[in-house]
Design a protein that fits this description.
182 residues, alpha+beta, 4 helices
């Protein structure tokens, strides 16, 4: 094999190895994202990631649910799976717009989740005086202020008992009813 052939072979090998590693990483992200939902939903869900403010589809689905691998904004990132209204709610939250209060969204986080604050939807660090972030066991969510704020549960708990249903961001347009499942 001459030098040029060897160089071409090495370049093709490196590109192929990189593509294989990316494929394994993508497969790992997909499996992790799908672990957020029950198998009956995960089987036909779309898997997407948020890159540079845009959603990028990793796997197409056809049941109206979108699962996402862990993000980077929470203290202990976990995967989540949302129905179409839930995705609209998340998009409104991320962009600072008001979600439609008449279209509740639904979400599973069967690997659990976390938040910096139970009161402030924009918190990106621990609020003054709070010693630890909110640790949430595996749960189902109803995303919508109308339902969450009318649930009869306390709306402004800084440190809720996360082993029972509670309202996150209560009293705000981003209120979420969180229901532990284990």
């Amino acid at each position: 094999m001459n030098r040029l052939s060897l160089s071409i072979f090495a370049a093709v090998f490196l590109v192929s190895a990189h593509a294989c590693a990316q494929s394994r990483d993508r497969d790992k992200q997909i499996q992790l994202a799908l672990s957020a939902a029950p198998a009956s939903i995960a089987a036909r869900a779309t898997v997407s990631i948020r890159e540079g403010g845009k959603m990028v589809e990793l796997r197409h689905g056809d049941n109206g649910w979108t699962c996402m691998p862990p993000g980077h904004g929470d203290p202990l990132p976990r995967p989540a799976c949302f129905d179409s209204n839930g995705m609209a709610f998340v998009d409104a939250l991320v962009t600072g717009r008001a979600p439609d209060p008449d279209k509740p969204g639904y979400s599973y986080m069967l690997q659990g989740g976390s938040a910096w604050s139970n009161l402030d939807p924009e918190a990106s660090k621990l609020p003054r005086g709070q010693r630890d972030y909110i640790r949430i066991p595996p749960h189902f969510m109803i995303l919508g202020s109308k339902i969450a704020n009318a649930s009869g549960l306390p709306l402004r708990e800084a440190n809720p008992d996360t082993t029972r249903p509670f309202v996150m961001f209560g009293g705000t347009r981003y209120a979420i009813l969180i229901i532990p499942v284990k």
